Structures are given as structure tokens and as C-alpha cells.
Amino acid sequence: MKLCLSSYAYLRYPIETAIERTSKLGYEAIEIFANRPQMLPEDYSPKEISKIASVIKSNNVKVAAITSANGTPQWHFTHPNKRVRSDAVKHVKRCVDLASDLKAPIVEVVTGSPFIEGTSQKEAWEWLKDGLGDCAEYARRHRKIIGLEPEPGNVISTSDLADKMVKELHANNVRLLLDIGHLHVVKENIPETVMKMKDKLVHVHIHDNDSTEDQHLVLGEGNIDFKPIIEALRKASYSGYLSAEVKQGEGDSSATKSLDYLRMLMN
Questions:
Q1: pLDDT of 71 over the 80 cut
Q2: pLDDT above 90: residue 112
Q3: What pLDDT sits at residue 267?
Q4: Do residues 53 and 32 lie in contact, with contact meaning Cβ atoms separated by under 8 Å?
Q5: Lower CB density within 10 Å: C or N end of the chain?
Q6: Which domains does the chain have, with CATH numbers?
Q7: Nearest to 201 by CA among 248, 242, 250, 147
Q8: Is the Cβ–Cβ distance between 222 and 183 less than 8 Å?
């Protein structure tokens, strides 16, 4: 397994600074938050994106993934307003383009929160399948993988629901992105989930919480037992990234503490 840092840990910094600090601390890769205030794709010209690609190359780090959504209602695949759903699809496609420019293999997708009351589960599911299918086909043409991430409060909130959607889409470039913090909130047995989903697992987010809400704490500051999860990932022969998706603290504090904890877990 390889160690990665989500640029969420440097949310109040320019993306160039996040890249430089991620590299300096010793992470192998960065996961780029494709939302304001960091790197919403349409905020950047091709020339500016090319400059950021040069910063990535000069700092000798890889881009493990592009995070298309940050858990806010901004991008929503299951909203009853068709224009909202259409904007979510357009945004993911822009993130696929950004992934091509920055040589990232994966684009993360969550389905949108909160679930809109008065919308039937059947309607929401079909809207989601249509939108994800469109994104998957676009990503396939660009040789990118869609990492479908369960998130509390979304239509896709559990690994089983994500697995069901993947099966219904019949798209071999839609895989599972498991977020350990999210699975803890929805009370999944995470080592069992890892083993059950091992053949579809493409990426892992790792952060901590107290199981009551999605807090994105530095590892070790909540009550998740990470050791059996790491053991399960090893048993499953997972060779992808562990991406620390922790909220920003003071300066480098969140990124540094998370790296120290990850290295301890891996030893």
C-alpha cells in the first residue's frame, strides 16, 4: 500500500502550496480536491493547469485521484431538479478532463447529500444510474476509473448499495472507493467489508471520527480501530493508496500527524 494525502488537509492554501507541502512531508501522492477554494476545474485555464502539472512533476509526487465532490449539496446526482443533476454530471466530466491533464487514474464520485425529502428511492436510484452511466462512458473514453464512494446521507450510503449500483451499471471502469470514516459512521464491519469488496476496491480514504458523524479527524483522534482494517487490506492484497482525508489544522499539523500514524500502522 502507498501513502497519499488529500489536499483537504491544506484547504485554505493554494493548490500549489498543498502539492509542495505534501511532497516535502514525504507522501508519495496527493489527491486533489476539485472544488473551491482549491481547484475547481473551470476556474483554471489550460495554461494554468499546465503550470500546476509542472509543479507536480518538479515535486516528484503523483496525483492518485481527483476528488469531484466534497459532501456539500453543490453537486447532486439525485436532486429532483434536472439542471442540478446535469450540473453534477458536467462537473464530473470536467474532473475527468483534469485527471487526464494531471495524470490521475481515478475520479472520486459521491452521489449527493442530503437526500431530498419527497423524492422516492426508486426515482433517485434511476436518476443516479443515468448520471453515473453518462460519467462512466465519458471516463472510459479517457481511460479513467470512476471511484464510487459511499457517504452517510447519500443515496449510496453503504458499501452494499455501492456494490449494487456497480453491478447494475455494467461498466468495468466503475469501482468501489471505500472511505473508512464513512463506513464507521454507518456502522459497517470494515474488515469484513474490505474482504467482501476486495475484487472491486480501487482506492481507500482514511480518517477518524467518534462514529456519530463524519468528522475527518486526524488518525488516532477518534475511536476507529485501524489495525484490523489494515490487516484486512493486506489480506485482500490491496496495493493501492491509503489517502488521508483529514481536515486542516494549524499549518502542516494534520498532514504530519496523519503521516506519522500511517507509518506506525504500516509497520
A1: no
A2: no
A3: 87
A4: no
A5: C
A6: 2-266 (3.20.20.150)
A7: 147
A8: no
DSSP string covering the chain: -EEEEEGGGGTTS-HHHHHHHHHHHT-SEEEEE-STTT--GGGS-HHHHHHHHHHHHHTT-EEEEEE---SSTTS-TT-SSHHHHHHHHHHHHHHHHHHHHHT-SEEEE---SSPPTT--HHHHHHHHHHHHHHHHHHHHHTT-EEEE---TTSSS-SHHHHHHHHHHHT-TTEEEEEEHHHHHHTT--HHHHHHHTTTTEEEEEE-B--SSS---BPTTSS----HHHHHHHHHTT--SEEEE-----STTHHHHHHHHHHHHHH-
* Cis-peptide into 152, omega within 30 deg: no
- Torsion 138-140-129-114 (CA) sign: negative
What are 18-50's pLDDT values in tens digits? 999 999 999 999 999 999 999 999 999 999 999
Given the DSSP bridges, would you call strands 2-6 and 241-244 parallel, antiparallel or unpaired?
parallel
- Write the pLDDT tens digit of every residue in 134-147: 999 999 999 999 99
Report d(CA 60, CA 54) in Å as an integer: 10
Q: N- to C-terminal Cα distance for the chain?
A: 12
pTM over 0.85: yes
Cα separation of 104 and 102, whole Å? 6
- % of residues, the chain, pLDDT over 90: 91
Rounded to whole angstroms, how far apart are CA atoms 168 and 133? Answer: 10
